[in-house]
Write a structure and sequence with these properties.
The complex is a heterodimer. By secondary structure, chain A is mainly alpha-helical. Chain A contains 12 helices and 2 strands. Chain A has a single domain, classed as MetI-like fold (Orthogonal Bundle), CATH 1.10.3720.10. Chain A has a two-stranded antiparallel ribbon with strand order 1-2. In chain A, a hairpin with a 7-residue loop joins strand 1 and strand 2. Chain B has 2 domains: 200 residues, 3-Layer(aba) Sandwich (D-Maltodextrin-Binding Protein, domain 2); 208 residues, D-Maltodextrin-Binding Protein, domain 2. A 6-stranded mixed beta sheet of chain B has the order 2-1-3-12-6-13. In chain B, helix 9 crosses helix 10. The longest helix of chain B is centred in the first third of the chain and has 17 residues. The termini of chain B are far apart. Classes of the chains: A mainly alpha, B alpha/beta. The interface between A and B is large, with 40 and 39 residues.
């Protein structure tokens, strides 16, 4: 009994730095930001309690509505785009693509490269007059290629494309790990039964990969709501807020206009929506995720 | 005699000991390049005040304001820090700035540009003191003007004169339907638009600066500017220039004229080099302006002492040192005009051997009726820096890109701006 108590105390002592750090730097700020969402607080001024005014304003603001729609649109491109591309790359690598070690590194490289640096390269690619993409399009006969980053139709998809390009290597590695856990005898059995490669993919690979796919889906959904650096460096949320998503809008309110209470309220709405989506996904999980 | 010496000795010791306890004065700047230039002046201050160490830090504006705001929230503001004309009212209202009233005499004050010193005077309290001031000007490419046979801009240029010149300077050299040289370059940025609006007697805000209420002169100026792109076709749509730094368009020889802040003189010198000759002119006076309503757009970069500073007196001494006669003209880069008249009028600052040869024009602008147009939450409703693609800037770009009418854009940014101002 005494030994058990000693073990518990020792464990607590070793865990204390982590627990204290977690409480001080995570839980307290999270709770405090919730309290802040009920205040009108220009950060360099005295906070003023305003009840639910920040929330009411967000729900009635056309600008906030536009930002929520942009966020949903971004997620609708980013999540399926990332998963499909990552799955394709993972399957190609798993099926013995020549120089697969090289390609594995090449596909993963953007993920670990400085976001601002690669985004500046993409700015050049998307540049209207001197960009690589438009000069290529003109060379193949397109008369008036779009101003990718200055056109409201294209700015958000452009941000999504760069975000997918940046993150797909990470998702690919996760799916590749999942693919390598699939028992090869399942493929053998399918082959013996006369299944075509396509049938093997949809009847063996996809069902056996659903747990990894579920994980990647939740992860990409969360990341899609957090896009900031690429938006900041590529379009600055423009033109005219066409590519402003929630995380960037929170940044603008908190650190440009210094409306901390309003920004906190936005963050909690984002948190609530994200939580709702995640719970929904978990609810439907058992319908399509195969458990061993 | 011994008593006298003892007394004097004690006084000297007491004076010397004022800062003998290794006082650290913290100073924060939004201009890392400028801070490097200032190091000599800071070292001179330390040498003149034994025991004092000035601890400096600098970061670009997009990092500076969040950091300074967080320090204000924590009650830990630097002793001395840069203060913008755009934010001084809000910061003073929040009691973050020490009141320096009475620390400078009228005689001393007369040695500085009045337009610049008045910006830091809020509700009768002197809460900031100018180091330098800046003003947007019309940059023009002399070689292009000469090649097109167009007379150079003059102080009595009208908007019609400007438009005629812009037309003559818009050139499609190979007649392929694509313009090779634009007469003008602009987008919805404050420094591109407001100089024209204010020179036409235009105002965006109501009298107490609590709401957007554009007068006719402002609307007329905005129509004139947006027509330059959509009707007159003498300036490119902003989206065509996406990917080119806005401050480089004229400097790279893609446009003959451009209006932006005088601080860009340094950039044009660097980018254009000796590729072409260029000059600066005043933004032409608008047709609706009267001598009473016309205003030059100019504002000051200032220094303030934090209201919670334990070294307020020393902080003010530091400000006096940094803004006064002891500074070198070369400390003020490009088109930053020293607030101290003696330096601004010196040949060293005027640099008549460099382009633009007529840099003294800035001093004429500073002597005019100056208006800043700033209000609380200005960056929010106007669209500036990280919010530059939204607010008024974003809406005007929609007009300039041919996707919206000016009337719709005005209605949209007034609605949005008033929402921001009402929060």
């Amino acid at each position: 009994m005494q030994a058990s108590r000693k073990v518990r105390i020792t464990a607590l002592i070793f865990l204390a730095p982590t627990i204290i750090g977690l409480v001080m730097f995570r839980l307290v700020p999270i709770a405090w930001s919730f309290v802040l969402s009920f205040f009108d607080w220009k950060i360099f001024d005295t906070p003023l309690f305003v009840g639910f005014n920040n929330y009411a304003h967000i729900f009635s603001s056309p600008t906030a509505h536009k930002v929520f729609l942009n966020s949903a649109y971004f997620s609708a491109i980013y999540v399926p785009g990332s998963i499909l591309l990552a799955l394709t790359l993972a399957v190609l690598l798993n099926n013995g693509l020549r120089s697969s070690t090289f390609f594995r590194g090449a596909f993963f490289l953007p993920y670990i490269t400085s976001t601002v640096a690669v985004t500046l390269a993409w700015r050049w690619i998307f540049s209207t007059k001197f960009g690589l993409l438009n000069n290529f399009l003109i060379s193949i006969g397109v008369d008036h290629p779009p101003a990718w980053l200055a056109d409201p139709t294209w700015a958000l998809p452009a941000v999504a494309i760069v975000s997918i390009w940046k993150d797909v290597g990470f998702y690919m590695i996760l799916l590749l790990a999942g693919l390598q856990t699939i028992d090869p005898t399942l493929y053998e059995a399918a082959r013996v039964d006369g299944a075509t490669p396509m049938q093997r993919f949809f009847r063996v690979t996809v069902p056996m990969l659903t747990r990894s796919l579920f994980f990647v889906m939740i992860l990409s959904l969360v990341r899609s709501t957090q896009t900031f650096e690429i938006t900041y460096a590529l379009t600055n949320g423009g033109p005219n807020r066409a590519s402003t998503t929630l995380a960037f809008f929170v940044y603008q309110n908190a650190f440009v206009e210094f409306e901390m209470g309003y920004a906190a309220a936005l963050s909690y709405i984002m948190c609530f929506v994200l939580g709702l989506f995640t719970l929904t996904n978990f609810y439907f999980r058992k319908r399509w995720v195969h458990e061993d | 005699m011994k008593t006298i010496f003892t007394t004097i000795g004690a006084l000297v010791l007491a004076t010397g000991m004022t800062y003998a306890q290794d006082t650290t004065l913290t100073y924060m700047s939004w201009d890392p390049t400028q801070l490097e230039v200032e190091q000599a002046a800071i070292a001179a201050f330390e040498a003149a005040n034994p025991g004092v160490t000035v601890e400096t830090s600098a970061m670009p504006p997009k990092d500076y304001w969040p950091r300074l705001s967080a320090l204000a929230a924590a009650g830990d503001l630097p002793d001395v820090f840069m203060m913008s004309s755009g934010f001084v009212k809000e910061w003073a209202a929040a009691d973050n700035l020490a009141d320096l009233s009475g620390v400078i005499t009228d005689v001393e004050l007369s040695e500085y540009y009045e337009g610049a010193t008045s910006v830091g005077l809020i509700d009768g309290k002197r809460v900031a003191f100018p180091q330098n001031w800046v003003a947007p000007v019309l940059y023009y490419n002399i070689d292009m003007f000469e090649a097109a046979g167009v007379p150079m801009p003059t102080a009595d240029w009208t908007w019609d004169d400007f438009l005629s010149a812009a037309k003559a300077l818009t050139i499609d050299e190979d007649n392929d339907g694509n313009v090779d040289q634009w007469g003008m370059w602009l987008y919805g940025r404050y420094a591109h638009i407001e100089p024209w609006v204010f020179r036409n007697g235009g105002r965006y805000l109501n009298d107490d600066e609590t709401a957007l209420d554009l007068n006719d002169e402002a609307v007329n100026a905005l129509r004139f500017l947006t027509d330059l792109v959509n009707v007159e076709k003498v300036a490119p749509q902003p989206q065509e220039m996406e990917g080119v730094r806005q401050q480089d368009v004229m400097a790279l020889g893609m446009a003959a004229m451009w209006v932006d802040g005088s601080w860009n003189i340094a950039n044009v010198r660097e980018v254009a080099g000796d590729d072409f000759r260029w000059g600066i002119a005043q933004v032409p006076m608008g047709p609706d302006a009267t001598p009473e309503t016309a205003a030059a757009y100019a504002w000051a970069d200032m220094l303030s002492v934090g209201s919670n500073s334990d070294n307020a007196e020393l902080g003010w001494a530091f400000i006096q040192h940094m803004v006064g006669a002891g500074r070198e003209a070369s400390d003020f880069l490009g088109g930053k005009v020293p607030a101290y008249i003696g330096i601004a009028t010196s040949e060293d600052w005027l640099e008549s051997d460099q382009m633009p040869a007529n840099k003294g024009l800035l001093l004429e602008i500073g002597a005019q009726n100056v208006y800043t147009g700033f209000s609380k939450s200005w960056s929010g409703w106007r669209g500036y820096d990280s919010t530059g693609s939204s607010g008024m800037n974003g809406e005007l770009d929609e007009v300039l890109n041919g996707r919206k009418s000016l009337d719709d854009a005005i209605a949209a940014f007034v609605l949005y701006g008033n929402d921001v101002l009402s929060r």
